[in-house]
Amino acid sequence: MTDRPLLTEVCATTTPGDFSAQGSRDGVNVVMPRVHKFGGTSVDGAERLKAIAAIIRDQGDGSVVVVSAMAGVSNELSRLVDAATIEDEGREAPGVPAAPDPSAALAALKKRHLDALHVIVEEGAARTSVAARIDEIFDGAAQLLSEGPSGEAGRFGDQLMAIGEDLSVELTVAALQAEGIPAAILDAREIIWTNADFGAAVPDFESIRKLVPSNILPLVEEGCIPVVQGFIGSEAGGATTTLGRGGSDFTATLLAAALGSPEVVLWTDVDGIHSADPSLVGESRVVSDVGSEEAVELSYFGARVVHPAAAKHAIASDLPLRIKNSFAPERTGTLIHSDRGAAPAFAAVAHKSDVALIRVRAFPTALAYGFLARVFGVLGRHSVPVDLVSTSHSSTAFTVDRDEDLSAVRRALSVFSEVDVLKNVATVTVVGRGMLREPGMDALVFWAVEKTPVYLISQASDVSISFVVDGDEAPELVRRLHLSLIELKEGAREEEAARSEEERSEEESRR
Ligand code: ADP
Ligand code: ASP
Ligand code: MG
């Protein structure tokens, strides 16, 4: 593998012009396109891809499209990566589900993509050429799997994971072209440059800011829709990297920020940000207007409808983010922006189940000071990010990502303290700026939590309060908090409004 690849597949014979970021070319202002990102369910099969083409046709101005892998494809690829890596390392893995048969799994994935292609594109040269490219992608994957990771698990994993998005861009361009919309693949590896932290690569913002406008705007000016893989990029040696699971949202905000786009639209399978995960709380409401601080908290604490990195990057770049339903594009969706201003009080409940709780208690012989510094020193040295913390003078408890390898941290902490790690826990978080300062709010929160055993409570700002509970208890707690803070409160507000209206009309009829 040598340097990063050069720009290869673009519409016609475009040559990148002298674009600067933030909307000007050779000093002349140009209208920047919106970036539309379609998640896994929105590209899942021919009908969904046709719906994308209709959505893009309905956009007045130029658009840039970012796509994820079809629903479930990244999970399947991840299983193949795990199976190959575990085998390569010769490890026994108790509890790990039986490894999928690689050739059967690849054949099933290939069939899924070819089936979609056959519906989207009529038989002919166009179909043959996309089918040949799909063949090529799967041949590459089979070859990769037969060679195995050869000790470089991260590099191997990212190369295999990327095929999900590589396949999606092929089908999306085919679907757009089939509807007469000029479109071309712009390979994310050419514009999303990252470091070499495979699996969770960090974008090189400076390079991206230069590469994105100069590669994308010539296409847009020609009336061609660039279609970019979400989630993937490349490191300096040219190898494919990934930005972490769910990272396509981040790709979209990276592109939009570099272009100075007026907005990013994340198209998904729900109407916007709900007051709780709608798959858990049927009574949840769509919130039309969310402040950026709340959006970041919600995404960090489990509302996966927006990726935390995307929410943070959008705020830092002053970029409005809209969430819309690709199954019902006429609905307004949710707008996340920094100047939510006087929007009505907002509250939402999020939960996250892939966390571990680490409890650390200083040995009685330990010095009375320096305990917390030692604990957090260990976490810093092992680069373990901490989510929630609670402490007393000689003990502390905190949550981390459950997938973190905690054995070295545990050993280091055990030198000066007793440590226990609970893996079957979840965090439940109530988010709402200012809301927690409203009189009576604490009582409503604790009324809902009353029956649930709680391991840890954490509130570091007036934007959110979090509880760590047993994983099995989390869904019920989310429902109770939603009932108490949102449904009952809303009911009370409506009753109060009706009472005031009644009093007003009585007053008027007395006059
Ligand atoms: P995509 O593949 O389009 O990126 P995701 O699965 O990543 O979609 O995110 C959408 C899902 O997020 C929804 O289907 C929903 O179940 C879940 N979700 C969790 N919390 C929330 C919330 N507060 N509001 C909306 N959706 C939520
Ligand atoms: N396909 C990738 C994943 O499932 C990226 C994304 O969907 O955002 O994690
Ligand atoms: Mg997502």
What layout of secondary structure does this protein have?
Elements: E1 19-20, E2 24-25, E3 28-29, E4 34-38, H1 46-58, E5 63-67, H2 73-89, H3 102-120, H4 125-147, H5 153-161, H6 163-178, E6 183-185, H7 205-221, E7 225-229, E8 232-234, E9 240-242, H8 248-259, E10 264-268, E11 289-291, H9 292-300, H10 308-316, E12 321-325, E13 334-337, E14 348-362, H11 371-381, E15 389-391, E16 395-401, H12 407-414, E17 417-431, H13 441-449, E18 454-458, E19 464-470, H14 474-510
Parallel strand pairs: 4-5, 4-10, 5-7, 6-7, 10-12, 11-13
Antiparallel strand pairs: 1-2, 2-3, 8-9, 12-13, 14-16, 14-17, 15-16, 17-19, 18-19
Helix pairs in contact: 1-3, 1-6, 2-5, 3-4, 3-6, 4-6, 7-8, 8-10, 9-10, 13-14
The structure holds adenosine-5'-diphosphate, aspartic acid and magnesium ion.
Structure description:
The protein has 511 residues and is an alpha/beta fold. The chain is 41% helix and 19% strand. It has 14 helices and 19 strands. An 8-stranded mixed beta sheet has the order 6-7-5-4-10-12-13-11, with helices on both faces. Strands 15-16-14-17-19-18 form a 6-stranded antiparallel beta sheet. It has a 3-stranded antiparallel beta sheet with strand order 1-2-3. Helix 1 crosses helix 3 (102-120). It starts with 18 loop residues before the first strand and ends with a helix. Residues 5-10 and 12-22 have low confidence and may be disordered. Bound molecules: adenosine-5'-diphosphate, aspartic acid (ASP) and magnesium ion (MG).
